[in-house]
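Kindly review this record before class:
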Amino acid sequence: MTERARAVVIGGGVTGCSVAYHLAKAGWADVLLLDKGELTSGATGHAAGLVTMFNPSPTMMRFRRYSIELYRELGVFETVGSLRFASSAEQLKELQRGVSRAHGIGLDVELVSPSDAIALMPAASPESLFGAVWVPGDGFLDPHMATHALAAAARALGARIVTGSRVTGIELGASREVKGVITQDDRVECEVVVDAAGMWAPRVAAMAGAFVPSTPVDHQHVALRAVPGSELPQDMPCFRDPDNLVYGKTEHGGILFGGYEGNPKARWIDGAPWEHGSRSLPPDQDRFEPLMRGAIRRFPFLEGAEVIKLVCHPDAMTPDANPLLGPMPGVRGLFVAAGLSLNGFGGAGGIGKAIADWVTSGETELDLTAYRAWRFGRVHRDPVFAAEQAREAYRYYYLLRYPLDQEAWGRPKRVSALHSRLQELGCVFGAKNGWERAEFFDPGRPWRRAGAEQRAFGWRRPPWFDRLREEHAAFRDRGGIIDLSSFGKIDVRGPGALALLERVCDNRIDRPPGQVVYAQFLNDRGGIVADVTVTRLADDGFRVTTGSATVDADLGWMRMHVRDDDPVSLREVSEDQAVIGLWGPSARDVLEGVSEDDVSNEAFPYLTAQDVYVGDAPVLAQRVSWVGELGWELWVEPAWAVHVWDRLIEAGQPHGLEPCGYRVLDGLRLERGNRSFGTDLTAADTPDEAGLGFCVDPSKEFVGREAVLGARRAGPSTRLRTLLVGGDAYLPAYGGEAVHADGRVVGRLRSCAYGFTVRGNVALAYLPPAFETGARLEVEVFGELVPAQVADDVLVDPEGKRVRS
């Protein structure tokens, strides 16, 4: 028997029901939701039901705010407020940072004193209490009631829900478009499939040849019966105590609490079994014991409480603890809303609306760049590596992870051909998308892998600050050499290569071979979804260079814009080429010392690429510099990389050439006004707002062109400006802090780093156009308002003479 639906949603948890409801609300009445069991028979049925708006991510904060509004409309939400305790001075500062970020997007939260926190929650102990974040609009819900209420609302709008029907296949057409789904009972024709299958989502996606990584990680919570005489009021606020790794709420006069283990258990890393459903797993009291002790520290009367039940159930965690959302490249009509990573009920309302927007209009209201379902690539196809990253993400869900900390688990995964040379020089390695990369160098000391190192010095100036000063001076005054092999690299070849790149890039790509073009990918609303350089290698051959963490997302974006008649091939080649950055005033002298090719300014202009020899090695040299100084990126086959590195190091000794790492680059590029994707450039920002209007070529057609031109006609409502914040001392601002003017919030910092040339803290922030150079502002840093001033866009070499010399 064949049925028909316009869209099929797979998964009857809170996320799937929210997607079905929002699709129906958007006018897609012919929506069918399928679940292999009953509604809430996955992780949804085991949720504790706490919902808070407060979150480090501005997008997730907005999702959660919308979710709470939706649950209130459905009549399933209990508004009791919530307290997020700081049980240490370091956590208090983290809460202060979070409050500043919340203020930056207009969220109503308040940092309260220890005495005020106890007044709001008398059952808590005042011991080791430094303060708390109070969110009056937070509360809790019953997971089953809330999910069924969403399902009922979806049915009322015309959606159908069928339980006890497992999907066994997704049918695709000749152009890899969704044609239908196969269930254990019948076939359903459809044009859209939304994979909201929770921990089974990777297996469902694989039915269509798509890949999304998430790993089930055990999560435990316990219900405790009230100690006689210590019954808790039903309207007691929910609580979270990150230092003690626990959260909870009152329940029947007792308390329900759960938490986040330091050494969590992953299971079914090659795919959750279909037969697993609503049943819980055997709990592990030994693993839960540290969490019990943490709860007792905050609520001492719990020591005598009776355990009603300890529940263990896995939850889907992604390698970066962000959800998997959006369309899947290469499968037209397949969308994912899964990998919620403990953002289930908090995120579900906003996520359902975002997916419905994506399905019905092709765009979303919020910036979902960090959540794109296709952002992971081949390195995460190793299920062991993906599971290790998911476990680490779970470990730090509450445990304080400082902004300068690095991932530590699952390393090393990918190393460049120069890894041993960096080790010999005392490199401190960080990690990005599985790559081991130089953070900075500690000469005379053994190399090491950076991890949770900021835990040792907290929010103070980092101990490597003076080393960064030296590396900064090398790039500015002499010469620096850096291993850039982790660059994301995509080869675009074939007769249709140029047409595809012209379509996705705002800048003109049709230039002679050997030209390097800086460009952005835009969405239909003109928002920036990628920041790349494109090198034309031949008439029908191009290389797109992007960040190591964004290469899979950018590759997916291009695949989504390949037309059926485009004769083009796309291939990620990140590991095929080592890349060495040679930047600084002496870069040409060093390169001339190892190459017989003419690298003069006349023969080798800025933003061009040429084949040269370094020693005996063939090298593609690109005259590009991220730090705003004279220099080249030297692309070489890995087998020749050590040869090239050694020759450059030897030739650079008379010029003071210094090996440098990635950590110093932020200060250098901010002094030069260079923007970074993901912080300064997002899907919520247009090229004109970002100060990148010079990249836009309005004479050609490209995705987002009409939106960009329409915004130009309307005039700018915001503009990315450079700020000098505080004095000449290091300021621990990391991005997201609220910017104030005349007693009101006017923006938030995007990037911030210390600029050693200008001897001050340099930041970028989007501000209303009225704030011109010289305007006085304040930035909220750890609860204090620090003076700031709008500065020129470019602080060092504004005319760009050095990079073009």
In short: The longest strand covers residues 306-317.
